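Input record (one chain):
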Amino acid sequence: MTSHDVVPYLDALRDHLARYAVPSPLSVECTTWREPVAVHLHELGLDGLASALLAWARTLDGVTVTAIQLDDAPSVHLTVVGRMATGVPVHVWGAVRYERAVFPDLPRGVEQDVELATLHGWARREVAA
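The corresponding structure, as predicted from the sequence alone:
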């Protein structure tokens, strides 16, 4: 693989960031694989992360949202998956502390779909999973 292989994906992300006022990435992973662009956000708290993910979701096509509690971590990864205007898929994610009251039906290691309405509720601090 050469550096030129990822340039179109990086260009698409750069253009997206320039076009939309979305929360800035903490880090970006770019590959030529099935999921070429992964954007890691560093928002604090469930309401902050939910708001940031919703901001990204409004700028993407074909949005889905998932949650997973990793086996070896006391946190939950929330991910918005969609396509930028160029058609390039992007995964935007962040992590929050696991709280049983918020994620009562989320077993470790199992990725589950999350409704956009749930993200809206979390963004408004209406923490009802």
